[in-house]
Specification:
This is Dehydratase. InterPro entries: Epimerase_deHydtase (IPR001509), NAD(P)-bd_dom_sf (IPR036291). It holds the Pfam family Epimerase. The chain has 306 residues and is an alpha/beta fold. It has one domain: NAD(P)-binding Rossmann-like Domain (Rossmann fold), CATH 3.40.50.720. The chain contains eight helices and eleven strands. Strands 3-2-1-4-5-7-10 form a seven-stranded parallel sheet, with helices on both faces. A two-stranded parallel ribbon has the order 6-11. Strand 4, helix 3 and strand 5 form a beta-alpha-beta unit. It is globular.
Length: 306
């Protein structure tokens, strides 16, 4: 079931690489967004709060506060509640801080946000999981998918701290959804590409496609990720669910026949693949949520001659 109502959304991590594109997309759909981050988002349409997701008291507080001075004019005697929460705040990868701190912030932050949101009765939550949960991106040495395409039923068996924190968050979200009956959707977000990165990064991807192996050649345009989040917010009644968040095609110009011969000759191919269909499959969001990409890479970068 889908709904098109305007929502009052608390968005954590809206100033990050993905969030700073997703939040404007949600604002363009008419939603009211309150951004919780350590750094404000520079958009006059958004309300910003500085808060620490690892502090449970701050999460309860920010979910029960006025967004701006204008809300005082309603004269309702208390702040309006939020209709939805989008939780992106996290240490975004390994190699930024210590492993223990990455795990602490990512898991505790997610627990605190889900705990506060569900206790306030917010029955629509979308959170950022990761492509890394499949255990390929940050493997020590080369790890290959167990089968292709990589869809949501592929095992999540990571061996690194960041991806393990995301698997833990999925289990936490599933527990809250089971207890409450609320809709809590996890997005296994692929390698996020901002608009300027097509010119700076993709020529290198074409020259050295092996640099995309750890991502299973996946990418997600940050603006298309905004559409995916909005579709999740409009979709009701699924309880707990997870979705791969990627674009329709691989992030290199090679055909799947070329990629499989070069990188995956011994990997099981479970179904027929289109010539350039993403090996990190977004079939579920296309068929079940209605995702239609607006920003394929070939719209911004010339297709190399072979």
């Amino acid at each position: 079931m889908t709904t098109n109502r305007t929502l009052r959304i608390l968005f954590t991590g809206g100033s990050g690489k993905a969030g700073r594109h997703v939040v404007p997309y949600l604002l363009d759909q008419g939603h009211h967004v309150v951004n919780v981050d350590q750094t404000p988002l520079d958009d006059p349409r958004v309300d910003n709060y500085t808060a620490d997701v690892t502090d449970p008291g701050q999460m309860f507080d920010v979910l029960s506060t006025y967004a701006n001075m204008g809300e005082l004019d309603h004269g309702e005697g208390a702040p309006r509640g939020f209709d939805a929460v989008v939780h992106f705040a996290a240490i975004p990868r390994n190699f930024i801080t210590t492993d223990a701190e990455t795990y602490r912030i990512n898991t505790l932050g997610t627990y605190n946000v889900l705990n506060a949101a569900t206790k306030f009765g917010i029955d629509k939550i979308v959170f950022a999981s990761s492509e890394t949960t499949y255990g390929i991106c940050f493997a020590d040495g080369e790890a290959k998918p167990q089968f292709l395409p990589v869809e949501e039923d592929h095992p999540t068996e990571p061996t690194d701290t960041y991806a393990t924190s995301k698997v833990c968050n999925e289990a936490t979200a599933q527990a809250f959804a089971k207890r409450t009956g609320f809709d809590i959707y996890g997005l296994r977000i692929g390698n996020v590409i901002e608009p300027h990165e097509y010119a700076t990064d993709f020529p290198h991807f074409f020259q050295a496609p092996e640099v995309r192996r750890r991502n299973v050649f996946c990418y997600i345009d940050a603006r298309d990720l905004g559409q995916i989040v909005d579709l999740c917010l409009k979709t009701e009644g699924r309880g707990y669910d997870v979705f791969n968040a990627g674009n329709d095609h691989n992030s290199v110009h090679l055909t799947n026949a070329d990629l499989i011969e070069r990188f995956y000759p011994d990997v099981e191919i479970r179904r027929e693949l289109g010539e350039h269909e993403a090996l990190y499959s977004n079939r579920k969001i296309r068929e079940e949520l209605g995702f239609k990409e607006n920003h394929p890479w070939h719209q911004y970068v010339p297709v190399p001659k072979r």
